Here is the input.
Amino acid sequence: MAGNISNSAGPVASSLSKLQSLNGLFAINKKQGPTSADVLNMLKEALLKEAGVKNPNPRKRKKQSLKMGHGGTLDSSASGVLVVGVGNGTKMLSTMLAGSKKYVAVGELGKATDTLDASGSVILEKDFEHITRLDLEEKLKAFTGEIMQVPPLYSALKKDGQRLSVLLKQGHQVEAKPARPVKVYNLSLQEFKPPLFTLDIECGGGFYVRSLVDDLGKALSSCAHVKELIRTKQGQFTLEEHALHEEQWTLENILCSLQPCSESEQKPAEADT
Here is the structure.
């Protein structure tokens, strides 16, 4: 019996060792619904199970058997590219946050919500029939380049170590963070079918699409919220070419898509988890 246990433990140890030796960055396709942290835990669990670990607990902080983090939180209602760092790659995630990102956003005119997207409650309704395609395209010019932007109250930003979104859900009073400079490299209107409109956005780190759409609605003498949001690019990773779908979350696929990190690239940083 002891011999059988030893033989079966060998391949498991080997697979886990290979998994733990990974260092670098890769991208996954986050689906709409779960939080970015939930998706990361799902990924960890899938990989640990494949490596033969019984009853893996990806949420356990102490003695983690797999070091992994994500860069650039996507809202639970958003989907698309989520960059993942594994091993020493977690130290490179801060550089990914500073890089450019691309989004496709569908906005809805005439309704504002408390979360600035479709997951929230409608808090204001205004007419939008006066808005034309030309009006919208003209207003977009004011939101291109380096602009000042106030982050949403419902966000991953923290106060006293707690996320603002969590504090709000617990009934606490939360003050808006001050406006801060953000960069918008490209902003264009792809489709206009009132009340819906579709934007293509390329921006820098710290930018909130929800704030943009909310501000845009106000600038048009109406209101608006994000109905759908997809991140199509983060840094060098694109949704079409690099992001692994859930059924592709295997060691082999990650090995094929992993961008390794050299010692010079490994800068200390806290990874989102």
About this structure: The longest helix spans residues 2-20. Residues 1-8, 264-273 have pLDDT under 50 and may be disordered. The two ends are 40 Å apart (CA to CA). The chain is about 25% helix and 30% strand.
